Amino acid sequence: MQPPKVLPTRIIGIDYGLARIGIAVSDESKTIARALMTVSAERKLELTVSKLTDLLAADAKKNGYAIAEIIIGLPLHMSGRRGVIADEVVLFANLIGLKSGLSVQLWDERLTSVQAERSMLEANLSRKKRAQKIDAVAAILILQSYLD
Q: Smallest Cα–Cα separation from 68: which of 8, 148, 6?
C-alpha cells in the first residue's frame, strides 16, 4: 500500500470588495504571486463566502495543490484606524475561516488599489481593461507583500 500523496501547498491572497473580489495564488515555493480570478460578490456575505470557498476548492483540486492559508487585505485608513469596510472584511475573514477550516490572516492593504491602478496605467491599459483587472492586481500586491 502506497502512502497518501502529499500535495504541494500554496497561499491565497484576496482583495475583498463589495462588488468584486480579486484572488491571487502563490507558486509552490511561496515566493511569487499571480492572479487567479476575479469573483463577483453576492448580495449576502454568506453566499459570497460559499461561492468563493467552492471556487477555491475546485481550483486547488483541478490543479493539484492544497491551500496552506488565506491572506485577506485589510483596508485601513492612512492613520491606521479601521473604517466601516474594514469591519466587513473582518467578518468576511471570520466566515471564510469557519467555512474553509483554513488559517486566515488579515494584511494591511493601504494603497494597494492605488499601486494597482498606477501599474496598469503605466502598461497603457484602457479604462475598461483596468476596471476588469484592478481587483486581481490588488490581490497580487497584497499576497506579494505578504510573501516578501
A: 8
C-alpha cell at 32: 511569487
Please tell me the distance from the alpha carbon of residue 109 to that of residue 139, in angstroms, as a whole number: 9
pLDDT at 135: 82
Task: Dump the DSSP string for 79-114.
Answer: TS-B-HHHHHHHHHHHHHHHHH--EEEEEE-TTHHH
* 84 touches 26 (CB < 8 A): no
Neighbours of 144 (CB within 10 A): 17
Which H helix or E strand runs over 38?
strand 33-40
Q: Compute how many other C-beta atoms are within 10 angstroms of the C-beta atom of residue 38.
A: 18
For 38-67, what is each residue's pLDDT tens digit?
999 999 999 999 999 999 999 999 999 999
Across the strands, what pairs with 76?
82
* Contact call for residues 86 and 17 (beta carbons, < 8 A): no
